[in-house]
Write a structure and sequence with these properties.
Layout lengths: L12 H7 L21 H11 L8 E7 L1 E2 L11 E2 L3 H21 L5 E9 L7 H14 L1 E12 L6 H10 L3 E7 L3 H6 L6 H13 L4 E8 L6 H14 L3 E6 L21 H17 L3 E4 L2 E3 L4 H7 L4 E3 L2 E3 L5 E5 L4 E3 L3 E5 L3 H9 L5 E6 L2 H16 L1 E3 H8 L3 H4 L1 H12 L3 E4 L2 E4 L1 H4 L2 H6 L5 H5 L11
Parallel strand pairs: 1-4, 1-13, 2-3, 4-5, 5-6, 6-7, 7-8
Antiparallel strand pairs: 8-10, 9-10, 11-12, 14-15, 15-16, 17-19, 18-19
Length: 467
């Protein structure tokens, strides 16, 4: 059975309910709770130098974290800073320029950028001159492929035509815009007032300037959402017709994100209603011609994300699904996470520490992780399952010189109940994920995670629910 983007999925809510439990999103393996402060700036610098000694080092993927926002969205789970003091942004860009130069000095000059992304926070809270200024620093330090994917997360509130002009002028060709929900009552409850007309204006502003791919973000499980109101939002979104959609599950974790305590818990949809919101979302979008790529992502059939899925070239990293596999990811700015072939490295999460490290001439790494052989094997298995919805045992055996069934005997035993529930099938030496199993791919991947037992033993919950 050949995996393919699903058409018009029919969702079994009772099955979703049975498997709705905390679990990782697998933007990395091992996951971030495994990172250690024993891995710091010297270890990361040594790894950068080592990986740049090769004459066939891979292309680069660059991520820049812009943490500033002018208002607080109560649902937000990102590392962000609320400020109206624009001088703070200038100061941050000064230090980010130092980090850019520091990384660029260690990277082989022959390597080119295949992918770049600005995330936040709110990258478009930078004014047009600040956008031009920091991108100029990036361009001075790195060379780009002619077809590089250069993306930015935008918030249309506060943007002007000059913002869009500046983004396009410096080279951005892709954009992702947060919408969350068009219902005014929901928007007021989460402190994000963004009229539909503003979203449509921003969308058209991107289109008329030649942006190649536009993604819109929605969130289900927000205060006062009902199936009727969210289906109305979905219909309006389908009418706008973005290339891609990311529809996230709202993770209410007030013990981790204290500002979420502002949201009254009795205003949130209960667990059953939340699953029905997901059912409506999947059935509406796949019934409207969008392919279900995996996890939260949907794309039009001719989108590069869909083509990458069909060609088995899809990849997964800290920004979610990506069409650029094999790149070394260098992430700059506070709290950002870099990923090279054998290591992860996360920057410090507070501005004073970020500034102090760069002033001292050190990479601002707070913690990280070096993968062992078992980590690399399991990362490959989990990544291919989440990106392809199938896994060839023979391919894993050939790649890593092992006996799949013997090596993963415990994992295969954990998969038996999922097989009985028809979430996956074993056929012709492959693990094939069924249409319903695609919606529960995190649960399937968890069977191969050797660290989950340690995470479950911790008193504070580490992960959001899988659905």
């Amino acid at each position: 059975m050949q995996a393919s983007p699903s058409k018009a999925i029919q969702v079994d809510v009772e099955m979703l309910k049975r498997y709705d439990k905390p679990g990782p999103r697998y933007t990395s393996y091992p996951t971030a709770p495994c990172f250690s402060t024993e891995f710091g700036p010297p270890e990361f610098e040594a790894e950068i130098v080592r990986t740049n000694e090769s004459s066939d080092a891979p292309d680069l993927s660059l991520y820049f974290h812009m943490p500033f926002c002018d208002t607080l969205c109560y649902f937000c789970g990102c590392t962000m800073i609320i400020t109206r003091n624009r001088a703070r942004i200038d100061e941050y860009l000064d230090f980010m320029a130092l980090e850019i130069a520091m990384i660029a000095k260690l990277v082989n000059k022959g390597r080119k950028v295949a992918q770049l992304h600005w995330g936040g926070g709110t990258p478009t809270y930078l004014d047009p001159d600040q956008i031009r200024r920091i991108f100029g620093v990036i361009s001075d330090n790195f060379d780009f492929h002619d077809d590089a994917e250069i993306g930015v997360e935008i918030d249309p509130r506060g943007m002007t035509g000059e913002h869009f002009d500046a983004l396009r002028e410096v080279g951005f060709n892709r954009a992702s815009m947060g919408v969350q929900d068009f219902n005014p009552k929901v928007q007021e409850a989460v402190n994000r007032l963004q009229p539909e007309e503003l979203t449509r204006w921003a969308y058209e502003s991107l289109r008329t300037r030649g942006f190649e791919s536009i993604n819109l973000d929605l969130i289900y499980g927000l205060p006062f959402q009902t199936r009727a109101t969210f289906e109305d939002t979905l219909e309006r979104i389908v009418d706008i017709s973005p290339d891609r959609l990311a529809v996230f599950n709202y993770a209410h974790v007030p013990w981790m994100k204290k500002h979420q305590r502002i949201i009254e818990e009795d205003s949130l949809p209960n667990a059953s209603e939340k699953l029905r919101l997901l059912k409506s979302t999947i059935e509406t979008l796949t019934g409207s011609g969008y392919a279900y790529i995996g996890m939260d992502h949907f794309a039009k059939p001719d989108d590069s994300l869909t083509r990458a899925f069909e060609q088995k070239k899809l990849y997964r990293n800290f920004q979610g699904y990506s069409t650029k596999s094999g790149c070394d990811l260098y992430a700059l700015g506070m709290s950002s996470i870099s990923q090279l072939d054998s290591v992860y490295a996360q920057n410090v999460k507070e501005l004073p520490e970020y500034y102090a490290s760069l002033q001292a001439g050190k990479l601002p790494v707070e913690r990280g992780y070096r993968l062992n052989r078992d980590d690399q094997i399991r990362r490959h298995v989990i990544t291919r399952l989440m990106c392809d919805f199938e896994l060839s045992k023979q391919e894993v055996e050939d790649r890593f010189s092992l006996d799949f069934d013997a090596y993963f005997d415990e994992s295969l035993a954990k998969l038996e109940p999922l097989q009985q529930d028809k979430l996956l099938e074993f056929e012709n030496g492959k693990i094939n994920v069924t249409q319903m199993g695609q919606l529960l791919i995190r649960n399937i991947a968890m069977a191969f995670d050797t660290y989950l037992g340690e995470m479950k033993s911790k008193e504070t919950p580490m992960f959001s629910k899988t659905v």
